[in-house]
Amino acid sequence: MKYKATMLGLLLILLLNPALPIEAKIDKKQKCLETKEKIIKINRKMRQKYTVKQGEKYRRQLEKLYKLEFKYCF
């Protein structure tokens, strides 16, 4: 009986283990897409009129987003 429970546990571990990297890739891809959308949104805002203060804010946001884009997309 112990042998069957152990084998069942090992089988479950082996079946579920390959799913974890797949989910991580999907999550990374989703974060990549979200980051790119945010970059596009800020670039659209920067094509309109904005104050110096807003421009500084947009540039800081873009700098952070470009770092995230490099992390998730490349």
Please give a structural write-up.
The protein is built from three helices and no strands. The longest helix is centred in the middle third of the chain and has 28 residues, at about 20-45. It has about 70 residues and is mainly alpha-helical. This is DUF1090 domain-containing protein. Keywords: Signal.
Largest sheet: none
Q: Number of helix segments?
A: 3
Pattern of helices and strands: HHH
Distance between the termini: 49 Å
Overall 3D form? rod-shaped
Percent in strands: under 5%
Number of strands: 0
Radius of gyration (Å): 22 Å
Features:
0% strand; DUF1090 domain-containing protein; mainly alpha; signal; 3 helices
Put the structure in a nutshell.
It contains three helices and no strands. It is an all-alpha fold and 74 residues long.
Record the SSE blueprint.
Layout: H1 2-16, H2 19-46, H3 52-73
